[in-house]
Amino acid sequence: MTVQDIVRRLGPRVPDAEHSAHRFRIATVIVSRDGLLSEEAMAFYSHFAQRAEATEETLYHSGFAKGSSKPFALATRGLGSLDTRLVTATGGMSPVLETVFDGIGLGEILTRAGGLSAVPISGSDVGKLLPVGTVVLYRTNEGRLGKLQVIGEGRDLTVRFVTYNADGSISAAGDSLLVPGTFLADLDAGTMTYDGADFLWGQWTETVRYLEPWGGALFGVWPAS
What we know:
The protein is an alpha+beta fold.
């Protein structure tokens, strides 16, 4: 029996893979007997809840058994991801702006890829182009397309981002990538690094700062003005 046999018998999946949910929010609930847990205990449980968002294999230790396991993102071959936070990192950003970001897919990015450039984007206090909620499209120096949204800005830049493979699967994603000024970040891996970096968050004075494309990467504010 093949998938095609099932489709012929039961009909196509509704919604189909393109229009179904790919990102899921989950919560971990701790039931305690003698009152609220301490900050230390909550930090312990938060650490393990956050592991569900991982995009690389994680180590486990259960009794005498040790090994590595695949988190949701790997188990779905990059097609899905989990958000384990109870409070969104976007803070005071309106739900409308969050929805705008979620609604931008790889097809939309492809149609606008020709307008991306290596021109720095101002995050300065005067002439700011990167207020909270701003969406920026990009092509990494490894050739992947993606989108990021500013959820915190100033001396430090905090973004959520999604980087796609050419087949539409997710190569890397994160909800709160913090890039201090002046540091480099790699959107192919979702880390701060020098090797393979895609942009510099350049803090040149107390009030002057730029998102500067790096290593051949290209960026552009969405929608193009």
